[in-house]
Amino acid sequence: MTDAAAATVPAPPKRFMFWRRFARNRSALVGLAFLFLVILLAAIAPVIYPADPFALVGRPMLPPLSGDFLFGTDTLGRDVAAGIAHGARTSLFIGVVATLVAVAFGTLMGGLAGYYGGWIDDLLMRVTEVFQTIPSFIFAILLVAIMTPSMESVVIAIAVVSWPPLARLVRAEFISLRNREFVQAQVLMGMPDWKVILIQILPNAISPIIVAGSLLIATAILTESALAFLGLGDPNIMSWGFQVGAGRTVLRRAWWICTYPGVAILLTVLAINLVGEGLNDALNPRLRERS
Amino acid sequence: MENPVLDVRGLSIALPKGADRTFAVEGLDLQVFPGKITCVVGESGSGKSLTARAAMGLLPPKVAPTSGQIMFEGRDLLTLKPDEMRQMRGQKISMIFQEPMTALNPLMTVGKQIDEILTVHTSLGGKARREKILALFDEVKLPNPKRIAAAYPHELSGGQRQRAMIAMALILDPKILVADEPTTALDVTTQAQILKLIAELQEKHKTGVLFITHDFGVVAEIADQIAVMQYGKLVEVGTADQILNAPKAEYTKALIGAVPSLTPRAARSGFGRRMLTVDGLNKYYKSGGGLFGKPTAFHAAKDVSFTLDRGETLGVVGESGSGKTTVARCLVRLLQPEEGKIDLDGIDLAGMTKRELKPYRNRVQMVFQDPYASLNPRRKVADILVEGPINLGKPAKEAHARARELLSLVGLDPKVAERYPHEFSGGQRQRIGLARALALEPEVLVADEPVSALDVSVQAQVLKLMDEIREKFGLSVVFITHDLRVAAQVCDKIIVMQRGVVVEAGKTADVFAAPSHDYTRELFASIPGREWSSAPEVTA
Amino acid sequence: MPNARLRYVARRIVQAIPILLAIVVLNFCLLKLAPGDAVDVLAGEAGSATPEYMAELRAKFGLDQPLPVQLVRYVGQIATGDFGYSFRHEMPVWDLIVDRLGPTAILMVTTIVLAVGVGVLLGLLAAVNLNTWKDSVISILALVSYATPLFWVGLMLIVVFSINLGWFPTSGMENVAAFYEGWDRVWDIAHHLVLPAITLSLFYLALYTRLMRASMLEQAGMDYVTTARAKGVKEGRITFKHILRNALLPVLTMAGVQVSAMIGGSVIVETVFGWPGLGQLAFESLFARDLNLLLGIFFLSAVLVLVVNLLVDILYTFLDPRIEL
Q1: Is the dihedral of CA B485, B487, B488, B490 positive or negative?
Q2: Quick one: which of A151, B56, B237, B498 has the fewest CB in 10 Å?
Q3: From the CA of A280, how many Å to the nearest CA of chain C?
Q4: Mean per-residue pLDDT for B201-209?
Q5: Contact yes or no for A199 and B387 at CB 8 A
């Protein structure tokens, strides 16, 4: 009943709350720890394996744990372990950069469509629909093939096929937020559109974007490895997918060439997914209550 | 008096760890008698809804009764096995809910959903079941029972859905009906019909009703017994007459005192010059179109006209879909009207573009309905209050100083400027929303249902504050509301809207004394508890 | 009602036309973006060609016309079913594609049935046994499968089940040398189908399991479930009569959306298992630089996605009474 009195209980600092909620999800912590290991591996790869990962350093198809080769050697005598270490750099780099591009573009498209509505929305959503209809992996293959395989073309291709779901997500968030009363209050105070979008709406839409973005990194890594597996990676850069593809023909005699890089992909993607779910729990607490 | 059909003795319900208090309900004693309606009244957080759920054996997970009994037909419901309790539900004790739309399965026809209760509890054949359902639809006055039975929930109106829910609850002639705010989501005219229906059926079938509500008007309308709850504890219990007219507990007195009276407040005069002239305002919403459908235009506001002087308050009254909110949004130019004039002190705002509008934006400001949606959760209170003025060219330092002044003006400690909105209660947020509007030094304030989301005691405080502020700044206020009680206490004159059209306009006292339009009369007749007189003035 | 539904279907088809057109235009742009044109390819095939001859050929194919004219001609060609000519295979693209459509259809339909069917079942099982060991096992399996690269699963399955255990063949769709007929042939194809279908469905199976579980849990918290409890309906009946149907709707939507991704996945799976479908053809044309063929496959798979989405929409009208026909 004493409504006029000021609130007296100070809320705990936001960052602390976030971490506590994130840490409540055990598997997210495990994922985060493993992800740190992968990042560490990527960072120190040039130190522990200073040689070119494409260099022929041993007899072909040595089994794991023979000599210096933890995971054995491949069909040409390249060190599989060195390839995995250097491949971590490729996967993480392409995954992150392609995701950043896709998130930026998707947010722009979805934001404009959601905020302005009307014909802008119609047009942008039709474009999005077209991109969602096209089988994305075949489209990525086409793009890389036409642009010739390289780091840039792979990043572009993955970004081009990844933005539509994000645009839809951001659009839905913007539509719901732009009709929220606090946004309308600013509109009728004469705040210019760009300020309303950047100050009022975007900060409130950022949580789902972060969650979707983190999960998108995992998908991007899977797509990159699949492209590389088909031989559409940058020929000068070591990649996990390329390693699996290269070992394919000798599956009968040397199973390890394919196996270990694949495990690396699996664990990395799994770790990112776990972290993404932890972020979701921490950033969108409403959803957590249900399960 | 007869023996109670439901006897709650010393009931305590524990909340999960980490909640803001240990017990949702503590040591509650409550009785429901056959053929009588027992109302449990309380504000949000009083534990009234959980009491209802406990009687149904439908408490949410992690919320559990820790002591006490709920006696029914000589057995304690709390000790029944889950399957025994399930047998009770629907057959001996049934329930209706606040929101009939979400309470019905969207993928099943209404008839089938009612049929389910018969297949679960009886061995009636298909034809007998069908006849029973159609007969009951007739009894709850649903038109064309066959069509309703074959309809999906989304095909019915809110009132029809609630009637169907009532039919579902009463089909097996239960001893007890638990009604959890069953009319809160309905318009006032529909609410009156549903309340009447519940009262009739309950009397005819000798059902004991446990009726949960926050609205003293509704209580006055139907209660035989009243129990007042606060913070999980019983404050007072007694007959309707005793509690409504001679409450003993201070809390009950305060609650009843906060209910706005239907006697309009004393007429005021001597307003300043003409501030606002709205003339022939029209707004359409177009939808559909394309290759296969004709575009349909919905006429949300039709030839709306009114005037407003300096210091005067105009009430815009109507039910949902009446166009009152559309008018409000046109006034602040969140919407662009298709036709008509919005003359603010000699300047027509109606046709202006965004750019033309900018110099006049500050002169008409708005207070919103939802205290939780109207403040940006990511901005500090200080930022919320200074954004507007800075944007319109006020120096930042000045704006911040003014923001602190405004906070004390609306009854908050200026120190709260550094806090985020989630740290405030609903009433406090409405105060901040008011300060935000005032920061732009408006001449006209448009208030869109500013108190309808607040508890009645908080509502009275916010209304009082708004009145003081209007007085202090000589504001002209357009007050949008569905609540005629609030309108009676706040407005100098009112317009009544129905389906986009103003059906009646006049001085508040005149309209209340002698409504001229049929619809207005229906509205007045529907106000719950209109015959129960409460304190003539808002006292809080 | 049937009339309303037909009109709804007609409306959906009309709405799909601009999308189809946009994809054709996109196709054309990709064709023009690629280095070299059909004449370059022809010249390359022939070994030597004089510039005069090449110019003559370009005129013959209309490649010397301004781009908008070429675009209109291209749209016209696609509309009449002319997907161009594969110079590598020396056959019209359309004929090549039709040849490979059957195997891909077998693989896709099996995969969809497997992924949606098993996924829904597992999701249901996990949700019903929430927070028990069954739920944990299903959730962990789904989580891992969701993170596994398709091509790697395929290879690992080959290592285990073909190479080590010898249960299934490593590649191909049938034992051509055996000249099976009738049911023997069906059995032979089914035998070859097991590993590719499992590989392709694993990821989507995981997806639908997770989605179904989440959807069940979400629906279980809805008000109408409380109403059903208040009616005294048994928990089992609540789950199957009320929650299940509502929970299936988002899964169905997702299944429609995922078809386009599944077609992409078939490129990999068909490549790994030597399955003679469109995916493998796409892979071959990629390395033969047979752009006409690749674009034809691309276009056709987009059309396939549109058709599947239309089917899902129609199915939806039967399942959700709230859809306005």
Answers
A1: positive
A2: A151
A3: 14
A4: 92
A5: yes
Whether A25 is in a domain gets the answer: no
Contact B304, B278 (CB under 8 A): yes
How many CB contacts within 8 angstroms connect chain A with chain C? Answer: 134
Domains of chain B are 1-92+176-257 (3.40.50.300), 99-173 (no CATH), 275-287+296-372+445-530 (3.40.50.300)
pLDDT of residue A11: 46
| Entry pTM | 0.84
The number of C-alpha atoms within 13 Å of C255 and in the hemisphere containing its C-beta is 29
Shortest Cα–Cα distance, B50 to chain C (Å): 13
Percent of chain B that is helix, strand, coil (3-state, to 5): 40, 25, 35
Apex CA A120: angle with CA A116 and CA A126, to 5°?
130
Binding partners of A (≥3 Cβ pairs within 8 A)? B, C
CATH number of the domain encompassing residue A193: 1.10.3720.10
Q: CA B322, CA B283: separation in Å to the nearest integer?
A: 12
Task: Count how many domains chain A has.
Answer: 1
Tell me which chain A residue has its CA closest to the CA of residue C295: A142
A185 lies in which domain range?
31-46+94-290
Q: What is the distance between the alpha carbons of residues A83 and A85, in angstroms, rounded to a whole number?
A: 5
CA distances from A116 to A102, A111, A122, A198, C75 (A): 21, 8, 10, 14, 33
According to CATH, what is the number of the domain C101-319?
1.10.3720.10
- Nearest-Cα distance to chain A for B251, in Å, is 10
Tell me how far CA of residue B64 lies from CA of B31, B53, B54, B61, in angstroms: 20, 11, 8, 8
Per-residue model confidence as pLDDT tens digits over B422-451: 888 888 999 999 999 999 999 999 999 998
Contact check, Cβ <8 Å, B107/C227: no
Which residue carries 């059957």 as its tokens? C102
| Model pLDDT, residue A147 | 85
- Within 121-140 of B, beta carbons closer than 8 Å to C belong to 121
Secondary structure percentages of chain C, helix, strand, coil, to 5: 80, 0, 20
Burial of C204 (0-12, 13-18, 19+ CB in 10 A): buried
Nearest CA in chain C to A147: C34
ipTM of this complex: 0.85
Q: Which amino acid is at A3?
A: D
Domain ranges, ordered by start, for chain C: 2-93, 101-319
Express each pLDDT in B150-159 by its tens digit.
Answer: 999 999 988 8
- Contacts of residue B417, defined as CB under 8 A and 6 or more positions apart, other chains included, come to B380, B381, B382, B385, B400, B403, B404, B407
Does residue C321 belong to the interface with chain B, where contact is any CB pair within 8 Å? yes
Best B230, B376, B425, B451 residue to mutate vs chain A (most A CBs within 10 Å): B376
- Looking at CA atoms only, how far is residue A47 from chain C in angstroms? 28
